[in-house]
Amino acid sequence: xxxxxxxxxxxxxxxxxxxxxxxxAKKEKPILGSGDAASAVYVAPGDYDEFYAFTSGGFxxxxxxxGLPSGRLFREIPVFSVDPENGYGFNEETKxxxxxxxxxxxxDDSHHPELSQTDGVTDGRWIFINGNNTPRIARIDLKNxxxxxxxxxxxxxxxxxxxxxxxxxxxxxxxxxxxxxxxQADVPIDSYxxxxxxxxxxIKVNPDxxxxxxxxxxxxxxxxxxxxxxxxxxxxxxxxxTCYNTEQANTLxxxxxxxxxxxxxxxxxxxxxxxxxxxxxxxxxPGEHYTNRMNHTTHSAVSTRxxxxxxxxxxxxxxxxxxMPTPKSPHGVDVDPSGEYIVGGGKLAAxxxxxxxxxxxxxxxxxxxxxEAGGIPVLDYDATIAGEVTNVGLGPLHTxxxxxxxAYTSAxxxxxxxxxxxGTWEVVDRIPTYYSLGHxxxxxxxxxxxxxxxxxxxxxxxxxxYLSTGPExxxxxxxxxxxxxxxxxxxxxxxxxEPHYAQxxxxxxxxxxxxxxxxxxxxxxxxxxxxxxxxxxxxxGNEVHVYMTTIRTHFKPDNIEGIKVGDVVYFHVTNLxxxxxxxxxxxxxxxxxxxLLVMPGATNTLRWEPKKVGVFPFYCTxxxxxxxxxxxxxxxxxxxxxxxxxxxx
Amino acid sequence: MxxxxxxxxxxxxxxxxxxxxxxxxxxxxTPKLSPEGLTQDQIKHGIGPIGSxxxxxxxxxxxxxxxxxxxxxxxxxxxxxxxxxxxxLAGVTTRRSPAFIMNMILNPDEMVKKHPEVKAxxxxxxxxxxxxxxxxxxxxxxxxxxxxxxxxEAPEA
Lengths: 649, 157
Known about the structure:
The structure holds two protein chains of two kinds. Chain A has seven helices and 45 strands. Chain A is mainly β. In chain A, strand 4 and strand 5 form a beta hairpin. Chain B is mainly alpha-helical. Chain B has one domain: Cytochrome c-like domain (Cytochrome Bc1 Complex, Chain D, domain 2, Orthogonal Bundle), CATH 1.10.760.10. In chain B, helix 3 packs across helix 8 and helix 5 crosses helix 8. The interface between A and B is medium-sized, with 36 and 24 residues.
């Protein structure tokens, strides 16, 4: 080879090497925190997100389902509020899910989703969420992403400190934000100190089917109980509850409940409570409440009324509950993954106070009490405190953990996430959020096994973050990369309702287990029609039951005559499809409730009271196939007293 | 000459890069494929879990079980002698191989997407055949029932 040739070959080799490197670079997954935020959150079309995020709906009463890192919204699961989009709370099958001792309640305010755990690790079976306004807890089944059960919490006003979980999902807890007369009574409001009380409820979760029941309620002094956290590892068997308003004010709380320098974190020994219950220390008290469960064999909710609850009185149960003084009007309480540290978010304090579980046990043993509050021993602050995190921002509310020894606290007033080290209490990083950060969430962050890759900040104010939609704005969430030493803001995304807390879980623990259809063979709805042969119309007095089937691309029957003004017509629609993602809709002109959206193999019922004489159409609302527009039918409505018999085809 | 060496080098390097894994296996014994990339077997017997299938004499008990499943899962779209959502099924066992019929029941999504004759039917009927959560045993029973329909002749293998 001569020199020229060698040079040319050399150049070619350089070009080839360059091409080789650039080809490889294209195929490599983006490296998180490399500075390219766009590729760090990019999930290519058809690819899946790494995590599910479940955000509470706040005043929407529902539960949002998102993917991380993309921030894509997959679904809004109706829980405490009706949803005309699929008929939840409107159709005959789900109405009873919203039954309470106050009657049918079509709305609530949902704050804190909490995933079920096994051995302290989120297991992807269920997610629980509280209803704050008319105290309730819901359980959502993560196989079908539907609300499976709602239990009402009696003797409670404002079910805020709920439904935090124990490490094997033995219990979800509920504490009363607003103390009330127990039992309810007609008393002057300014007799608060004498007549008002709080409750801390332990709701047992059946490990096989998830069914909830109120195992016991502890009657506690009338403070405002705010948030809670289950013990884990060494502190398993205990649960911790913040409270404020130890002043027991009943008016102008902003001033009157902010006088004491310290309020409390209540530490409850629930294993001891079980022992006291077994010894017969429980008292049966009035406590009317409903338990509503969805049955996916009958596709219908079953509602049960309970009249009483079992209560434990701390005076009868020494060692059941202690108060740990915590500055000041503490909001969040979060137990770290090791189970040793109990972190109090001192909302009006300049520090975050971290109690030590082992020091707490020692202090109890050594009787380091500074007094009693409502008959409950109050521990000496210095005896339980492990450390204080200073310079943590103003308005520290909530803390999550990454499982690598770091804690992340939200500071509401200064709008930031502050990262600090467990044990040394030293602040190591901080990042602004936009704006007014409330809760924050790391997937698995409340459990013993966080997946410390992302943090989601759930902000209370949005202002200028998105294109304006007038006075009412979507709430802003921010995705932050926490895999490195420095936190990095990756993505801003709007959320539905007003998310308070959220939960996250690796997609692999949920996605492969989801239900795709309901099997027709197992449909035991009393008004089912699982073949077209069973489709029919029956009159019982002024009630008319239409046993209707639907499949691409027709309803059977699709013409119904003999209906009269004054009748109550029930359309029981069974979707005969057995294929994934083929729901059929059913809408009836003049129906005053909603549509039906019937999943494959299920039966749903729409109640319709025809008011006008004429011929009225119904149709499929879910674009199911090329002949979807042909999926229609008519109901002929005759005057009251007409002798026209029922007929159909 | 040098340019050629260069091109070969570049091409080879680019093809070899990133540890392979994308490279096509040697196509030594490639069967003749249809324009859609299907084998002759797939054209004849359909795409799905059932290979070719040889049927014995008519099994009355199985056919009657098949009639029950057919009533539950198929009649909303299929009649015996007239078109409904899908085509009439009398004589289907003379038009299609047993394996084709079972694959159509068990794997309709892929059949509709890939098989040229099924694609042509979609253009005629507009609504794709749907999977009705039928087990392989039930699909076999439905096939046995279809054999009993008037117009059905002795099936071919």
